């Protein structure tokens, strides 16, 4: 399968202005109001606090997600999705079939650690 097209080159400052942190998922709820199957997820990002997001990661069960270490972007602002306020972007990769595989930090990373 071919790789998706690469995106346009952007100034490095754009990347370095994002605040990417290690988090730990604390709760997962069904999100039936979403257009595509999704969960409402809360995660602890240490000093950045507990933030929530909507994520289309239903290939994982809520039990698989709860307690999982994750990587998220925490400074993109709030976005309203079907009446729900999303506060961070959960990072993952997409395989050739469009299935999301969440990024995982190293085992020694703790919530709030910066990713750079």
UniProtKB/TrEMBL annotation:
Family matches, as SUPFAM superfamilies: Nucleic acid-binding proteins (SSF50249)
Residue stretches making up the TRNA-binding domain: 14-116
Entries under InterPro entries matching the protein: NA-bd_OB-fold, tRNA-bd_dom, Tyrosine-tRNA_ligase_regulator
RNA-binding as UniProt keyword: yes
Gene3D superfamilies reported in the protein's UniProt record: Nucleic acid-binding proteins
GO molecular function: tRNA binding
Annotated PROSITE patterns: TRBD (PS50886)
Keywords: RNA-binding, tRNA-binding
Coiled coil: none
NCBIfam families: PRK10089.1-3
The protein's name: tRNA-binding protein
Organism annotation: Streptomyces ferrugineus
